[in-house]
Amino acid sequence: MYLAIYFYDVVVAVHVAAIVVAFGVTFAYPLIDAQVRRLSPRSLPAWHEIVATVNAKLTTPAMAVALFAGIYAAQDRHLMGKSWVAVPFAIIFILFGLVGAFFTPQSRKLATLAAADVAAAPGDGPVTFGAAYEAAYKRVAVVGTVAGLMVLLAIFFMVTKPGGY
Questions:
Q1: What is the torsional sign of CA 97, 103, 106, 108?
Q2: Residue extents of the structural domains in the chain
Q3: What is the predicted pLDDT for the residue at 29?
Q4: Which residues contact 87 (CB under 8 A, 6 or more apart)?
Q5: What is the pLDDT along the chain (165 residues), one digit of tens a residue?
Q6: Cα dist. 101→6, 60, 108, 140 in Å?
Q7: Does the first or last residue of the chain, that is N or C, have fewer Cβ atoms within 10 Å of its Cβ?
Q8: Against a cut of 0.85, is the pTM above it?
Q9: DSSP codes, the chain
Q10: What distance in Å separates the CA atoms of residue 108 and residue 69, rounded to the nearest whole number?
Q11: Burial classification of residue 132, based on how many CB atoms lie within 10 Å of its CB (0-12 exposed, 13-18 middle, 19 or more buried)
């Protein structure tokens, strides 16, 4: 039996793995967030810092690996002009911008706002989050939903390959 593994196939596997690493956890964020809000609202400042750290130290580097592996794979097979390559390519650049310019700073802002609201709460009593926190939280939730849909759209294009090879 002969098993051939080509470098191109390894690069595609690295590309797919990097996408899973970059974005997999982000789909769990709303569930984790809801649990933290329900079970331990005083932990929200730490939760938002965790999200910012994951964005900076996991999501962004994994997106870079996915981008470079994707560029190599598309160039190797002369696919750069295909819509199923161009659309995800555009999406990943938009996501780079969103992670760097929106999600990471907004997560840090949410951590700061939540910390102030927790500090203002009496003793071990309930925490009431202010209007500034709730407005920022809603913005992040809406943009996060859009970003998640963009990831799914990119996957759809990469898998279905509209227009073919």
A1: negative
A2: 7-160
A3: 97
A4: 153, 154, 157
A5: 778 899 999 999 999 999 999 999 999 999 999 999 999 999 999 999 999 999 999 999 999 999 999 999 999 999 999 999 999 999 999 999 999 999 999 999 999 999 999 999 998 899 999 999 999 999 999 999 999 999 999 999 999 999 998
A6: 37, 12, 12, 12
A7: N
A8: yes
A9: ------HHHHHHHHHHHHHHHHHTGGGTHHHHHHHHHHH-GGGHHHHHHHHHHHIIIIIHHHHHHHHHHHHHHHHHTT-TTSHHHHHHHHHHHHHHHHIIIIIHHHHHHHHHHHHHHHHHS-TTS-----HHHHHHHHHHHHHHHHHHHHHHHHHHHHHH-TT--
A10: 30
A11: middle
Structure tokens belonging to residue 28: 């769990």
d(CA 133, CA 94): 25
* Contact in structure between 69 and 14 (CB atoms under 8 Å): yes
How far apart (Å, rounded) are the C-alpha atoms in residues 140 and 148? 12
> Which residues are CB-neighbours of 160 under 8 A, at least 6 positions away?
84
Q: Which amino acid is at 155?
A: I
